[in-house]
């Protein structure tokens, strides 16, 4: 990586027009790659956008730009799988894990009551654990975590060492979670996909690690959830700038 120029590649796809014009979100993706990997990366994101279970897009945007900032390396989170045989039990377990990460219980309950409202947000919601308010100020756009990736070789070595399948969906989720938990303002992350065929979600935090929960919603449900429980007393501009702009690669032996 040292001395190598990297590029941030981003894709978003929607149906019935652009996201800004009210189109239905279909798929999105983020990758970091050196120049010689650009063609492969663009093709992989194109395939992802065209083959999503949420439907066929009629708008897709793929763009790349050179990364000029120093790239930070972050070590992967510890991973654990928690079995849940119903969405209700899965969400109750998620509440317990978020509490263990340090979020007050009444704030957790308030956030869960507002999940239906947040499900229309395209990015993440920043939820202040002190006031119980959403504080990102991004309305339907939310905060989109960007400029992170996990090089394939490193991910495959990690997966083999953990006895996990080298699943691309898991790699993407773990990369996002590792970056998000790398900022001191983020106390915990709660996420499940808007993919109607994927019902596993997770809670993540620095000390807690990446806690997979096998059932967080019912099959066929297209509503997703991504909430970052944050300490609103810490500079939120710095936090959002980090989430959206700081380039990060996941790497064993990286920063804690």
Automatic annotation (TrEMBL):
Catalytic activity line of the entry: heptanedioate + ATP + CoA = 6-carboxyhexanoyl-CoA + AMP + diphosphate
Any GO MF annotation of the entry: magnesium ion binding
ATP-binding in keyword set: yes
Required cofactor names: Mg(2+)
One example of a Gene Ontology biological process annotation: biotin biosynthetic process
Enzyme Commission number(s) of this protein: 6.2.1.14
InterPro entries: BioW (IPR005499)
Job description of the protein: Catalyzes the transformation of pimelate into pimeloyl-CoA with concomitant hydrolysis of ATP to AMP.
Protein family membership: Belongs to the BioW family.
Subunit structure: Homodimer.
HAMAP family the record matches: BioW
Protein name: 6-carboxyhexanoate--CoA ligase
Species the sequence originates in: Bacillus swezeyi
Lineage: Bacteria, Bacillati, Bacillota, Bacilli, Bacillales
């Amino acid at each position: 990586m040292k001395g190598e120029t990297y590029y941030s590649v981003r894709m978003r796809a929607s149906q019935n027009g652009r996201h800004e014009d009210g189109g239905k979100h279909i798929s999105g993706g983020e990758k970091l790659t050196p120049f010689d990997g650009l063609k492969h990366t663009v093709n992989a994101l194109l395939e992802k956008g065209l083959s999503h279970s949420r439907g066929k897009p009629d708008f897709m945007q793929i763009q790349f730009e050179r990364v000029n900032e120093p790239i930070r390396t972050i070590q992967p989170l510890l991973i654990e799988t928690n079995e849940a045989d119903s969405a209700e039990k899965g969400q109750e377990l998620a509440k317990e894990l978020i509490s263990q990460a340090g979020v007050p219980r009444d704030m957790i309950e308030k956030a869960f009551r507002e999940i239906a409202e947040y499900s229309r947000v395209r990015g993440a919601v920043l939820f202040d654990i002190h006031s119980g308010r959403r504080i990102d100020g991004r309305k339907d756009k939310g905060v989109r975590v960007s400029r992170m990736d996990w090089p394939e070789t490193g991910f495959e070595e990690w997966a083999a060492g953990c006895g996990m399948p080298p699943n691309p969906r898991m790699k993407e989720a773990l990369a996002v979670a590792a970056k998000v938990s790398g900022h001191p303002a983020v106390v915990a992350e709660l996420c499940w996909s808007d993919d109607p065929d994927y019902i596993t979600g997770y809670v993540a935090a620095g000390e807690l690690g990446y806690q997979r929960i096998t059932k967080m919603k019912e099959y066929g449900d297209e509503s997703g959830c991504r909430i970052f429980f944050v300490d609103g007393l810490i500079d939120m501009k710095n936090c959002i700038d980090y989430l959206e702009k700081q380039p990060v690669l996941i790497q064993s032996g990286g920063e804690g």
